[in-house]
Amino acid sequence: MTVQSVSLVIAGSGGAGVVTAGSLLLDAAANAGWYALMSRSSGPQIRGGEAAAMLRFATEPIMSHDDSFHLLMAIDWENISRFSAEIPLVEASLIVGDPAHGDAPAALLSGKPRQAALPMSEIAGRIENGRPNMVALGAIAALIGLPPEAMQAVVEKNLRRKGQAAIDASMTAFHAGVAAAADLPAIAKLPAVAAASGPRWSITGNEATGLGVIRGGVRFVAAYPITPATEVLEWLAPSLAKVGGVLVQAEDELASINQIIGASYGGVPAMTATSGPGLSLMIESLGLAVAAEVPVVVVDVMRVGPSTGIATKSEQSDLNIAVYGLHGDAPHIVVAPNSVADCLFTTQWAVHLAEAMQTPTLVLSDQAMGQARAIIPRPAELAFIGQRITATAAVEGERYQRYAVTASGVSPMAIPGTAGLTHTADGLEHNEFGTPSSQASDHHTQMDKRSRKLTQFNYGDHWADIEDAEVGAGDTAIITWGSSTGPAREALRRFSDAGGKARLISVRLIAPVQPEKMAAALKGITRAVVVEQSHSGQFHRMLRAFYDLPRETCSLHQAGPLAFGPGRILEQLNTWRA
Amino acid sequence: MEAVTRKYKAKDYKSELKPIWCPGCGDYTVLNALTRALAELGLAPEQVAVVSGIGCSSRIPAYTSVYGFHGVHGRALPVATGLKLARPDLTVLVTGGDGDGFSIGGNHFLHACRRNVDLTYIVMDNQVYGMTKGQASPTTAPDWEGSKLTPEGTGINPFQPLVVGLASGANFVARVSSSDPVNMAQIIVEAIRHPGFSLVQVLSPCVTFRPEQAEWRDIVRTAVVDYTDDAARAARRLMTDDGFNVGKVLYKGERPPFRPEFEKTNGSIAELEARFLL
What we know:
The complex is a heterodimer.
Chain A: E1 5-12, H1 18-31, E2 35-42, E3 51-58, E4 69-74, E5 89-97, E6 114-117, H2 120-125, H3 132-144, H4 148-158, H5 164-180, E7 200-204, H6 205-216, E8 220-223, H7 230-242, E9 246-249, H8 253-265, E10 270-274, H9 276-292, E11 297-302, H10 319-324, E12 333-335, H11 342-357, E13 361-366, H12 367-370, E14 373-377, E15 390-391, E16 413-414, E17 424-426, H13 440-455, E18 464-468, E19 476-480, H14 485-497, E20 503-507, E21 509-511, H15 515-521, E22 527-532, H16 538-546, E23 552-557, H17 566-577
Helix pairs in contact in A: 1-4, 3-5, 4-5, 6-7, 6-11, 8-9, 14-17
Chain B: H1 2-5, H2 27-41, E1 48-52, H3 60-63, E2 67-70, H4 76-86, E3 91-97, H5 98-104, H6 106-115, E4 120-125, E5 128-129, E6 135-136, H7 161-168, E7 172-177, H8 181-193, E8 198-203, H9 216-219, E9 221-222, H10 231-240, E10 245-246, E11 248-252, H11 269-274
Parallel strand pairs in B: 1-2, 1-3, 3-4, 4-8, 7-8, 9-10
Antiparallel strand pairs in B: 5-6, 7-11
């Protein structure tokens, strides 16, 4: 069974309200009992400029975007060609444009999509305060089978403050769009759903990240704004205040990382969120957190690099800096969520790992997940609450050893305010008391200890999501990480629907590496495809360095902001099947 | 009263570690004055934290018996900011040098003054990078030719930390000399007691790389005017003096410190989650 879904794009220039229209549509789909995923793409303009809302609807949870879109609804054509690579259209696709804005640009027509006209501005002009984007929504609703009453509820909720006249104007325009759709060619329609299967959430990856942080026990956040991580921080500011936490805006990323190190040294679990340029600035101090053994969580919502790159678009290319960027031998943890929903799980887990091992933990999210909104089944409650092993009382006749050499490598940490256990936490190499030391023996002992903390920890099954298309997964595997997991999951499902057998390994624990667990996961696998969104195949190289991969392993990698669709991954699996 | 019932002595705040400083370094007396000030305040050692970055003077935390944090170069102020905001019950001091505070950490200095968190920042200013063996610092005179890195001098005017501190919003500004540890201890006591961000510049000679600074003890003079609450007046005084008027508080402001509340506002995680539920 193939996923029954409808994919569409609403595009237009600044002021056309495409992101608003997309959000209304997503909420209406939720009311209709559907699941939905909405990503957004925008140009570099601060306000206005071209924008596109990419949506997919289904009657069951959605893993990724499809390979192409059924519908492109263009409120106007301004700069829309800039998105053409991100909006694959095929012969079955339908472009609907407003004749008042002329013809569709040639860049959109290479896949030979069908075309139709919808005079949105003219229809809207006939309605007092009517807006073309509501006409477009009416037409979309009619085309994809969304019941008008689902939209009615959303419009009433969103425009309540603007009054009944505004609600009426919007719904009049919406119904005019519904009526006008009668003249448009048909596209895929989703069936009506009687009732949703269980409770659902509407959440973005960045919101889920913020919630995971709070669930994990973080109560101090330092923030410096950066696209596309800012929403994590903006969600946290009021939310932390509700649960007794604090967010402070710092003067730069150097300050935000060091503020959270200070707060965590003070005993309050702490985090910050940033993107590649900010992570680059934080690297030196992440090493300090390794050496001084201060738990902190840093979320990197990755965007296209290097340098300023493309701030508004996604890429999985900070893997190298996250894993190898720190100078010296600096054992730390790198984890990566693999879906919008998993941003919650993985971030909460990250807090748990950081606190348990008293070491910095990096979370590699990305723009594609962070700024995507999804309707998801309500996530489960998780038991992961950050718990730090502390020293609470002095032992008679013994001087406190902040960096005591223990079997687990974790040394009980005295929190300032605890009598009899004063010490200096230090980025200088030190002995077990924290006293600076340049002796080889101290360096070796402390290096071993810091490394042992991470290698001996029990990460359970969470190091990766391992999903079999069918029990006894055949001899083929897809190995991937982060947001590339969505399309890989869907490819696996399509492969299995067609009778194929394969296994998906989505690595959540990027560092420290887990060679034994990977060997077990790859048992019986003779062919693998590694899928990622980076120009140089960073993940593939890392796998090559640390894991025994099947003899026949190929790498599917490309730079952002383009992601591999499920179809391209399936193509590789089918090559082997033939 | 304190003198009679004093619970702690200065040595109670010193660790057993022997400083790595050169003989004659001004920082020894700063350590003495700091521990003397803590004793006068009668603070329990576990209720005090000293935070530093990198440099000779940044070694101080390990020489004390209070909680210490020795971080990376230039970032002591943000560490201390996070610590104090997370733990308002602690007395948090920051120690460091002119390079750490005004060059690599310059931006944090501006914003720490501006943010006005209740911290006391003691800067041991010797107009040189000592730990890296004698390079010009942001407070070095433009014509100092003692460094191989800038053999003809830097040619650029020195940074004016106290003027910049005032302009940026520091709530307490003082200049002292390491040659008078008793006076320094008194000023540090005042600085700690004063709410908000307190900046204490200590003229602390580096006798190794700036041997001419040994003369500072003879050049410094006790400032003749007392403190003002007028930042502009304090700045004008500073910009017209020769940098050697010491021993007095120059400015005390009344800006309330930045102190976000951690108090629980009747919310719960379940409420946060409910907002996502359809």
